[in-house]
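DM from R.C. (forwarded with permission)

"hey, sorry to bug you on a friday — could you get me a structure for this? deadline for the figure draft is monday and I only need the backbone to look sensible"
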Amino acid sequence: MLAAARPLVGVPYDLGGRLQPGRGTDCQGVVFYAAERVQRCTWRSFSVMPTKTVASRELGAPVEGAYPTTMAALDLTLIRPGDVVLFLGRSENKAEPALTTLDGAAVWVWHMGLYAGEGRVLHASPFAGAVVDEALGDFVSAQSEWVHGLAFLRSDRAPSPARCRRGARMPDVRAVVR
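My reply, with the result:
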């Protein structure tokens, strides 16, 4: 999935965007774009609710020892390039239940991306240039007031949504104006 998502680097950030004409993508769109490219289901096959995504394991199973974890306790030897990274915050998302607890407090998913190795994450960030990039340190340091932890998902096979919908996929990244 990481290789499938790399062509998105430099695409503008666009909340809710799925690479429609004149639009970019958001963090979930990066993961969905990659998933579409490595299996035959469209991005609409996946839940937009992180708690459902995790419960159904459609993007992979929790990585033992890295689900959840704080930034300080993160052991980079446990994660691999291509793992899905969920950024966790204590701010409540009233649209869904908390994903889990971390340090005794409930946490919700507020951002996601793909682990790119060497402490980097390929993600669409509304900060630091508002484009898809592969930087983790800048994002986390700029948002440290709400990034309270991380959770990693891994799949050794193509993503597997509960229901595979076929049809129109996100446009090829070459169709997006950067």
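R.C.: lifesaver. The mean pLDDT is 87.
me: no worries. Helices lie at 2-5, 27-38, 50-56, 137-142.
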